[in-house]
Structures
1.
Amino acid sequence: MKNFEDIQEIIKNSINNLDFNLEPRLLYEPIEYILSIGGKRLRPSLVLMACNLFTKNIENAIYPAMATEVFHNFTLLHDDIMDKSDMRRNKMTVHKKWNENIAILSGDAMFITSMQLALKTEEKYLKSVLDIFTKTALEVCEGQQYDMDFETKNDVSEKEYLKMIILKTAVLIAFSLKLGGIIGGASKKDLENLYNLGINIGISFQLQDDFLDVYGDVKVFGKKIGNDIVSNKKTYLLIKSLELADYNKKIEIIKLLSEENFDNNEKIEKITNIYNSLEIKELTQKKIKYYFKNGISFLKNINVSENKKTELMKILKKLINRNY
Amino acid sequence: MKNFEDIQEIIKNSINNLDFNLEPRLLYEPIEYILSIGGKRLRPSLVLMACNLFTKNIENAIYPAMATEVFHNFTLLHDDIMDKSDMRRNKMTVHKKWNENIAILSGDAMFITSMQLALKTEEKYLKSVLDIFTKTALEVCEGQQYDMDFETKNDVSEKEYLKMIILKTAVLIAFSLKLGGIIGGASKKDLENLYNLGINIGISFQLQDDFLDVYGDVKVFGKKIGNDIVSNKKTYLLIKSLELADYNKKIEIIKLLSEENFDNNEKIEKITNIYNSLEIKELTQKKIKYYFKNGISFLKNINVSENKKTELMKILKKLINRNY
């Protein structure tokens, strides 16, 4: 079994080997840039580790793994325009460093590139991989649209929120695991296990992201605390507060959301106090663990020896405990 | 042989049968909208007519033909954001009717949909069709980037301009013809003929578009005359004028391009007068005919009986003579 460091090394080299030294420069430079500023490379790691559960030879999974990473970065590129985010991974976003038109177009080119990488899948799996890949890609768009719909909606239910993050985040993680399984020759039953593992872990990760925006350690998290609060983002914490608050507290929250010229730190403090009073912290931690454990139960069901699962288990645990 | 009206009817029904009655509505409504406001459906027509050269049964080409139409409309959607165009086919553009975020995201979803339609290609042709489709899609992005690069460049050469319109316009027309040929079972030689027909006809059409912006009949053309002049678009006519003008006239053109608060009609008149004095009208007409004839020579080389080519020839001639 390859360990996580081996896998990361393979991915790093494979990304470096992608050739974007092409003309016109203003189309390809932003692609090089966003791929070079890193990130956890979670999705391609999952492809390769899932493949490695079933076969030693993960060579055939490398290009498909690159496809998930390039696709993911394409969604970040377009999402950053839509969310008007100026920074990503402590660097300027593409639309800020260049401009919006360049971000739109190089994003388009990235998505096409991700399809080209997926097209290097072994021919016997090609059709099914592309069917699931395009289905997943469309779901990610749906998730992003729901997320935008929620901006002007103060009565988002937990169910609606879960549906949104499943589409926006979890399906791509689930697809990555399943993709690795397909190329590794997993059984239909195990492909389902991998997919369900991904959905649950994906939900868990997103809930944790929401959680860390309020309760994370800024030094570990790498993002400013309270970003989501300032931008009125409909996180799990906010949605749950709106659901659990009594009439007066609900009015207070909505007032905080609608005020235009608020001092950011004051707003963060006030909303955090409301979360604390409603025990949102504990509630969210419970949910994170619930979905994580749920996911792991699907990993346990996968029909390969337990020792082969150790590395994947280790990395999933590391990711979920990373900051609290 | 199916005639052009039969082909148009098939395309109309097939587009109507595409199901975008899906949630979230703000993702799928703009797709329905842009596909419903028509256009010439040139690309899917070319797919089906090219296929029909080699086989009576064009059924298998219908979904791939839809893929070219959906892809083309995706590029229009994103190009309209980048060009800040408010109107398209006498209707509001998507980013104007909704907003930019919705136009970016539903454009992304359209591109994914076009890939899904292409995935319905018969399995034996699937890999090669998708390889050429994604290559073409990337070239179209490159063309759009060159077009944007030209906005701030006053020394675009004819060669650079031709390269740009080949990428932005001609390769998709060439791909459409070749795609029909592949599905119809054409020989490698005839696939090349189809592709070269498409490149030349595509150049010819784009030159004609440039030409009609200045010399077209507004009632037939359906667009306001002089749009390209007002927006300083680097058309063939402008590029050629900058190349052929003497020093003083060149200064005059550049001055007209750089003035901010110009009366539009006056600007159109002045630029048109310069074109006339440099015989740009005749020169452009000559070029349009040159590439058109060049294209037709590749059609003549295709190894099927002449009577099978009649319908395709007729429609190409109709398109090129449509307004002058």
2.
Amino acid sequence: MNSLDWIAVDWGTSHLRVWAILDGRVVAHAQSDRGMGILSRPQYEQALLDLVHDWLPDADTTLVVACGMIGSRQGWVEAPYRAVPCMPQGTTLAHAPTVDKRLNVVVISGLKQSMPADVMRGEETQIAGFLALNPGWDGVICLPGTHSKWVHISADEVVSFQTYLTGELFQILSDHSILRHGMAGWDEAGFADGLAQGLERPERLSSRLFSLRAEGLLNDLAPATARARLSGMLIGAEVAAAKPYWLGQRVAVLGDSALADLYARALASFSVPVTRHDVADATLAGLSAARAAYLKQDQPCEN
Amino acid sequence: MNSLDWIAVDWGTSHLRVWAILDGRVVAHAQSDRGMGILSRPQYEQALLDLVHDWLPDADTTLVVACGMIGSRQGWVEAPYRAVPCMPQGTTLAHAPTVDKRLNVVVISGLKQSMPADVMRGEETQIAGFLALNPGWDGVICLPGTHSKWVHISADEVVSFQTYLTGELFQILSDHSILRHGMAGWDEAGFADGLAQGLERPERLSSRLFSLRAEGLLNDLAPATARARLSGMLIGAEVAAAKPYWLGQRVAVLGDSALADLYARALASFSVPVTRHDVADATLAGLSAARAAYLKQDQPCEN
């Protein structure tokens, strides 16, 4: 590679993604599964170098801007949470300790909320990027995922947010509960059924779960229907509970995954105005905004 | 051992309990962890004999009356479900195939409900025993456990019932979710907090779960508080959802476990009239009632 200005990094619990940026454009991309979950502190620098060392000019220091769980207490360096309400990104970044002189690694802080207690790391950068790409946008951002988040945005600030364990509940029920015996595949009608159940009576989740098992025993419920209905029930219950977030608001769903489709469909059933947005674009825009703020602060005005 | 009339057996997924009965009284008891979950069909007879072979008179056949998952399709012999509304026990029992001539093993059928789909195996015997011990009782029976059940009883019949996955949810969240990092011990105040949350807003379960994690990160929530609060949230959400069962009814909680205490406390917070009853007593009374029905049917009237 000939040249680059800086490196953008999205480093979560189970993934590491890096982009080389020159003149505001991506000129190289790489990724690995060496997420925070499997690394100890001395291993972070090498995990990063394994992906980017060919990109680094020998004579110079390259700025690396990272977001995600890498900034947690168990990560490379702790980047303290900032408390909402606040802008999604602040001006202070945490410096990660490095041995290789070619690296200058800074990590973006996550956000915290005291009541109800909640935290995010990584999503704040996607939010900042989304707002950079959509200046002046007010409304609610929905970020589907293992721990999905609903975020109220007003006047460029994160006012409040709420995280749901929905995706993880789906995984552990599929893998570890009595339901694991009859879950495989996908069936659209099953999702629609489950969604309607979850939206209508979210408080019945725990009994509806056992009903899935009973229908397997009594009515030979197809594994594809059971799995899709479980997903629908869980997402339906989440969307019903998140009503104070989306009611009377426009909602931006960040994500191009199949999961994001399901959330968009659930919201559409309430005629909520929904737009869809690319997560990678938002992440890069957010990392870019963080770099700009860092450069501005790091290089004092000369005039 | 000198003598016995018959053997009562409670055989679930993870346990096997046997009682030798003479003149209506328990004269011996044994148990093992050789539940249905770890046995294949040819192994059942030996698992039973390992506990009872010393009890069996050589010259005679001993009646063994069993309830529980042993009667499921994957059990020793399938005892077809009976459909509610119906009496908790019927007159037909399934004969399990045996090689040892000293054994005559019969298995009690479970109950099924078509809408919403639900099943029970074992609890029907506890219910029958409870009703034998409390003749003419009407109301709602609550059976706490891994899959807790609420059962509406009227005129000696099971009118309807509902199973909740609450106990299993607690287990898999404690063992396999992100919450596993901060869960240990027990704290009464934490249970009371979680119970209030679950009762008040059962539909918020999925977001409250993540809040537990966030409070651990932000406020160093004690693991004992987190674990008790999780239990309270789940039981509270169940009791709230089961309101159509207990509202305006008296409730008999079957169980002397710590878990049964928690259910009784949750119900007491709504001033529901609650009585507590011993499960082993109810199980034995139910097995005894099944034996009496079997003897009556098997030995035609002689006058």
